[in-house]
Design the sequence.
């Protein structure tokens, strides 16, 4: 089930979108401010975001750069062409002007979900660690390690949420469709194998286990 995050402080629009999307078979989460949205992301990273621009606290324009790797459809009352151009060049996948036709928005959502995450999600860096998700290669300087499909999915998720503790259940939920070999019983083994491969690259343990909760990335202080 695809997961859509609605970031909009308009209660009426949010309720309407939530009801429609749920009926269409999507799992829906809500955030009423930019700050709340950024707090939700590490716990349940969505497959797509519907983003309003005029939000309390952090604006939509400020939130957008922090949503790398997630298709974002901006849903806003702003109609200025330059606003649209700037946001599309800044990483938005699409722009829908309020008021909108629900059927049109649903069609745009379906198209973006078929396309999947943007290309920026394939090449990630954290401290001195780099990941090429296309080739499943982790590297530190000239040293490289080839990762299994499951190891790559775990590392990619951690790198998309730098410094955040990702719970075990969240990891399993997010990678289950692509990596059916990763189960609750085998997750610890996959993480252990990944930690060893990364440690062999530079002698640094990049993945920190947070007891009873999950895992997070730890920067190489000498990098």
Sequence:
């Amino acid at each position: 089930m695809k997961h859509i995050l609605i970031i909009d402080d308009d209660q009426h629009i949010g309720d309407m979108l939530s009801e429609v999307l749920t009926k269409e078979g999507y799992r829906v989460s809500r955030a009423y401010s930019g700050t709340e949205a950024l707090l939700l992301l590490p716990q349940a990273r969505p497959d797509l975001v519907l983003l309003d621009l005029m939000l309390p606290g952090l604006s939509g324009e400020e939130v957008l750069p922090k949503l790398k790797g997630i298709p974002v459809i901006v849903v806003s009352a702003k109609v200025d062409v330059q606003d649209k151009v700037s946001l599309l060049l800044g990483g938005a996948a699409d722009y829908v002007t309020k008021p909108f036709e629900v059927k049109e928005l649903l069609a745009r959502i379906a198209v973006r979900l078929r396309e999947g995450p943007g290309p920026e999600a394939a090449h990630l860096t954290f401290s001195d660690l780099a990941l090429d998700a296309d080739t499943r290669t982790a590297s530190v300087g000239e040293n490289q390690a080839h990762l299994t499909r499951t190891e790559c999915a775990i590392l990619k998720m951690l790198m998309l949420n730098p410094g955040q503790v990702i719970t075990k259940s969240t990891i399993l939920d997010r990678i289950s469709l692509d990596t059916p070999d990763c189960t609750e019983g085998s997750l610890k083994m996959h993480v252990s194998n990944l930690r060893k491969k990364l440690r062999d690259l530079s002698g640094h343990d990049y993945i920190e286990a947070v007891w009873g909760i999950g895992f997070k990335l730890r920067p190489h202080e000498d990098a």
Q: What stands out?
A: The longest strand covers residues 3-7. The chain has eight helices and twelve strands.
